[in-house]
From TrEMBL:
Residues annotated as domain SnoaL-like: 9-110
Top-rank lineage group of the source organism: Bacteria
Record-linked Pfam families: SnoaL_2 (PF12680)
Name used for this protein in its record: SnoaL-like protein
Length: 117
């Protein structure tokens, strides 16, 4: 079973940094449970399809921006967390935050994104 460190890395690179919707959907199917719940400051979405649509919308808001890890994965029990930054490659970030995941049976069942500031 995958642990939170591996899942957070796959999520960042294969979902939030993946421009191709088909490839992104394939990684979502591997990494997230069918009934995943994603919560950020603006929305709560349920299920893989809603998650995919939300990520597509988020990526459209910042074309050319990439997510990069901003620290190590930390965790306890079935929870994992990792800070990240968003910005143009090689430039200062425009946004940062923290992802917190709950892992159930080797997949992310819950994802909370807390934005900095």
């Amino acid at each position: 079973m995958a642990g939170s460190a591996e899942l957070l890395e796959r999520m960042l690179q294969g979902v939030f940094n993946e421009p191709d919707p088909r490839q992104r959907a394939a990684v979502i199917a591997e990494v997230f449970t069918d009934d995943v719940v994603f919560v950020d400051g603006e929305r709560t979405v349920r299920g893989r399809e809603e998650l995919a649509a939300t990520v597509t919308g988020l990526l459209a808001q910042g074309p050319g921006l990439v997510f990069t890890p901003a620290g190590p994965v930390r965790g306890v029990g079935d929870l994992g967390m990792r800070p990240w930054r968003l910005g143009p490659p090689g430039a200062d970030p425009v946004l940062g935050g923290l992802d917190v995941v709950q892992v159930v049976d080797g997949r992310i069942a819950r994802l909370w994104t807390v934005l900095d500031g």
